[in-house]
């Protein structure tokens, strides 16, 4: 357990000493802020005509968190691309393999390290709607469900990125591969609309279907289970991949 | 060196890469305080052997015992006693020396108050005390190598494995690293690989030569100079038994070209006695030559033919 934290601490430190992380953090916050401000202004304009059923949490929160997923889909491959590929390229993977730590600890440590960074980003994202708190009454449960959805979604993104990063020694290939894989799983939503016997299966497998419940404030444990299983699957695949490397 | 308490033991290590046999049934033991030099031409299997010893590569057959713990069955416990500096030091150029060593100590389970002490002593041993806050990427190659070495010894392992630790360094840095390795002997057993012969002679107490994946030589370095032979040729060669009766001659062998090779007792020089005897008995002495084997001769003898053959074979395979 302590080993996991040692690796996670190191990973977080390395993320935060790299200019890439800070620029991603800065740019993403600028975009989130832009979307948030746009949503608030739009809500203000339509306030007279707004249906009573569409509240401010709904409009601003859902709008912001909904768009955030797309930005995270673009960002996460960049954050995970270096995790293993760069270590393999620079030979530092040997340090982990020679140390008295298990492969599971290595993978969980790296995953946790990148999630610390993601949490910082999501924390800032949570603060934006919270800035409205003094003025209006928000549906905090609903916002929390949306935020939990984003957290689960990024966990899934991160685990997939971690796995693909363990396959290659070129960070850029890892980034492109992760982006392609995530987008494909996301777009399983498309064949789900066709009239085939597998429609419900595609719908279940798509990364985004389960998020739509959470963002509307509907907490269904099967959606949470989907993301947790997705994450566990890719973390497990990463462990297997690293074990293969030695054989 | 006659210490039976072996810290690391390789038993029948074998590694295949597809159809290629990189390491073939390699076995050896290393006792406390020994420095073993692993010699071999490029591509002989040195690095593969070291990767297997440190758990970076799983052997196809055989096993490694560190401190009596099998690397396969008790991986974590075995690795606690092992420090490894690969050919390319595993450094993070964006971190400072202190940050990096703190992480390495943490990886080896050294935490809290022990950590500062471990970092301090590793830095002192490797001459890094003044560069702690500096970023690794800005250090010279020699200092980076030292940081790599500090990483390998920070947890005070009983066995330190160093893969070509002086590659790419200037002569002064090489001397410093060698001194450092010699100083390590007090507390650690060291396995060192190199293809530079004088380096092995300068640092190691024992030499093992690997050629085409096989261990072809394993002896203490003190044995090297003492092993000398006398090569003699006669017009009318006497009986072998007659020659071995001369004081100092331990063994006589007759070669195909008529030359006789006399193995000598350690430190003995029977040349004068032999000449007198040859004149007395009218053997017709034609040739008399004392030869003491150097490491280089042994190395070339054991590896050159095979290496050349291997190279030839590789060329054929490439052409095919």
Task: Provide the descriptors you would attach to this structure in a database record.
heterodimer, A: 247 residues, mainly alpha, B: 320 residues, alpha/beta, four-stranded antiparallel sheet, 14 strands, 37% helix
Strand order of the largest sheet of chain B: 6-7-8-3-9-10
Distance between the termini of chain B: 49 Å
Quote the average pLDDT of chain A.
87
Radius of gyration of chain A, Cα only, in angstroms?
19 Å
Structural class of chain B: alpha/beta
Q: Beta-sheet strand percentage of chain A?
A: under 5%
Counted by DSSP, the helix tally of chain B is 11
Average pLDDT metric of chain B? 82
Percentage of residues assigned to helices of chain B:
25-40%
Residue windows where pLDDT falls under 50 for at least 5 positions of chain A: none
The largest β sheet of chain B comes out as: 6 strands, mixed
What is the subunit arrangement here? heterodimer
| End-to-end separation of chain A | 26 Å
Parts with pLDDT < 50 across at least 5 consecutive residues of chain B:
none
Broad shape of chain A: globular
Secondary-structure class of chain A: mainly alpha
DSSP helix fraction of chain A: over 70%
Radius of gyration over C-alpha positions of chain B, nearest whole angstrom:
24 Å
User: Which chain pair shows the most residues in contact?
Assistant: A-B, 25 and 32 residues
